[in-house]
């Protein structure tokens, strides 16, 4: 299976990869003229043949269009900032599971030291999204927004969107119960709290934004495990 890479844009029937990705192609993968790779501009995927390899630049001639699949269900993940190893693993798996937008949340119980360092990790996090998108053969890379306060992030979504806030509260309905009431949808918003859980004020803000609480069961899951379990459930229940 050919490797897939992202480019800024297609120029008629040519494309260029520059910078670190070009360096990786040339020095690590030993790319040579004539080799074929899949290239995506975020809208279309085409087969590209290498014409020239320079130190930090690889030039392609574009050949055939490659059939591509874009999920009809648009999923946004509002993920509270947790320990970076867990957070980054969650970013990778969320990308593989098809999320379109990721918003890191500065929850009340997120560790303050992590929040202070989060803005410096943006480049690294975007690189994780790109690599996971290439591996899973996506057409486009998810959008990573800046760290937001939950009160801001919980508002502004369409009434037709399925909006779920994961909850550990004893009276929270199961994810199955919540999703059973919904048919195929165009948009879903999933929000997941920090390791210490949501505060009452944050739950109130989520409810005001139209979010419904849902539980993944009686077992307490790590944040990254909850991301995978919840997204898989949403894709199964709401996708065509």
Task: Chart the SSEs and their pairings.
Layout: E1 4-6, E2 14-18, H1 19-28, E3 36-40, E4 45-54, E5 57-65, E6 74-80, H2 84-96, E7 101-105, H3 112-118, H4 122-135, E8 143-144, H5 150-153, E9 162-166, H6 175-180, E10 187-192, H7 200-208, E11 212-214, H8 223-238
Parallel strand pairs: 1-3, 6-7, 6-10, 7-8, 9-10, 9-11
Antiparallel strand pairs: 2-5, 3-4, 4-5
Helix pairs in contact: 2-4, 2-8
Kindly describe this structure:
With 240 residues, the protein is α/β, with parallel strands linked by helices. It has eight helices and eleven strands. The chain has a six-stranded parallel sheet with strand order 8-7-6-10-9-11, with helices on both faces.
Number of strands: 11
**Would you tell me the structural class of the helices and strands?**
alpha/beta
**Averaging pLDDT over every residue, what do you get?**
92
Radius of gyration: 20 Å
| Residue runs with pLDDT of under 50 for 5 or more positions | none
Run of helices and strands: EEHEEEEHEHHEHEHEHEH
Count helical runs: 8
- Portion of residues in beta strands equals 25-35%
Globally, the shape reads: elongated
Reported for the largest beta sheet, the result is: 6 strands, parallel
Helix content: 25-40%
Strand order of the largest sheet: 8-7-6-10-9-11
Q: Between the first and last Cα atoms, what is the distance in angstroms? A: 26 Å
Structure summary:
The protein is α/β, with parallel strands linked by helices and 240 residues long.
What descriptive keywords fit this protein?
240 residues, alpha/beta, single chain, 33% helix
